[in-house]
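User: Please fill in residues for this 269-position structure.
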């Protein structure tokens, strides 16, 4: 019997979610009858082949996109498209830093708009820069930064607002392997300290295994929930050494078999 009093509360609940897009050739079913929950403090990855609806689901959870059918709740309250939820932070696929603002000004943008006192804002920005490994770059403009550094700025601009729930849409997909592993290290360190509830979209199985507590595998379009995998690796995790363990290899092979079936489906279709 489950002890409901000691079980983590549900932060995100997705029930029978469906999304259809209109096109010249008729309606396109992108997401079909998807249901899952994300508990307090979980790091859950949405994994699947390109076009399976991962980002579409994330955008519906964020309230950026309306759903055709089904229900989405955050802390038992229905998500209303277009309504800002201050508990939720969103990190996009590509860095969204403002080229005309310095690293400091980019990271502190949300605090500035929110009216945070200047001294408090400066202290929080300085701490964020240190945490992100950007010390010495506060006065620099984005054009002088590498892709990984710009993505750190974008990440910290979201995290400095202290969201309880973090939605991430393939934020490291455009980075090279070395830089991606560095970003994994940074994100794991931040998450170990803050323990936000995270829903993370990726098509990279290695990335999902490195970061997440659970992997929700979606089928090829229309996206349906194919399987839900626990990722039992102990924490804290080292983003490099973890990949060298036999346990990582075994779980990678197991999930890859299921993911590979969906890759083959996309080629046939």
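Assistant: Residues filled in for all 269 positions:
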């Amino acid at each position: 019997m489950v002890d409901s009093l000691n079980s983590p509360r549900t932060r995100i609940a997705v029930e029978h979610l469906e999304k259809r897009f209109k096109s010249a050739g008729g309606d396109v079913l992108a997401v079909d009858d998807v249901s899952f929950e994300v508990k307090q403090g979980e790091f859950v990855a949405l994994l699947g082949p390109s076009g399976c609806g991962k980002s579409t689901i994330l955008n519906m959870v964020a309230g950026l996109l309306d759903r055709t059918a089904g229900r989405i709740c955050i802390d038992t309250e229905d998500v209303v498209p277009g309504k800002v939820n201050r508990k939720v932070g969103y990190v996009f696929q590509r860095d969204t830093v403002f080229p005309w603002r310095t690293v400091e000004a980019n990271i502190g943008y949300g605090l500035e708009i929110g009216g945070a006192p200047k001294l408090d804002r400066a202290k929080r920005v300085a701490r964020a820069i240190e945490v992100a490994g950007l010390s010495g770059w506060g006065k620099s403009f984005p054009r002088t930064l590498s892709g990984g550094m710009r993505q750190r700025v974008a990440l910290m601009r979201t995290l400095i607002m202290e969201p309880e729930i973090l939605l991430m849409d393939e934020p490291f997909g455009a980075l090279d392997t070395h830089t991606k592993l560095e970003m994994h290290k940074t994100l794991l360190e931040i998450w170990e300290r803050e323990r936000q509830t995270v829903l993370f979209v990726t098509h990279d199985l290695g990335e999902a295994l490195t970061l997440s507590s659970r992997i929700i595998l979606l089928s090829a379009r229309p996206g349906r929930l194919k399987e839900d995998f626990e990722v039992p690796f102990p924490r804290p995790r080292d983003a490099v050494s973890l990949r060298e363990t036999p346990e990582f290899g075994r779980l990678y092979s197991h999930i890859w078999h299921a993911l590979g079936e969906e890759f083959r489906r996309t080629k046939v279709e």
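For context: The CA atoms of residues 148 and 183 lie 7 Å apart.
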